[in-house]
Each structure stands twice: as C-alpha cells, then as structure tokens.
Specification:
single chain; alpha+beta
C-alpha cells in the first residue's frame, strides 16, 4: 500500500483479482464493528490502526 493506493503485482485472473480486492477491503477499509467504509488508517508509533469515523471503533491492522 502506498498512501491511499494498493498495488498488486503479477498476472491475475478475474476471480483471483476479485478475491484480492475483497480481502483488501475487509482488512483495510471496512470497520469490523459497524461494517461501514468510513475509516482511515492511522500510524501510532510503529503500529497501524483502522479508525472508524462512523462509530469511533479503533482496530489494529497488520502491516502491509
């Protein structure tokens, strides 16, 4: 991930690419609590957190 973009390298079939996008959205976009996409990723020290602007939830995310 670079800034606000995700980069996928390689050749992917349509099904594989759709699965990659779904996984990316689930891990880095959608709030695990309220399921809304109103989130942002914030770095605190060396940890990344997904902050939901809709419900206020704060969840850790794995480094990309």
């Amino acid at each position: 991930m670079q800034g606000t973009r995700a980069n996928f390298q390689g050749r992917f079939g349509r099904d594989t690419f759709e699965r990659l996008i779904e996984r990316y959205v689930k891990e880095f976009v959608v709030c695990p609590i309220c399921k809304r996409p109103d989130t942002k990723i914030v770095k605190e020290r060396r940890f990344l957190f997904l902050i939901c602007e809709a419900c206020g939830a704060k969840s850790s995310v794995r480094p990309v």
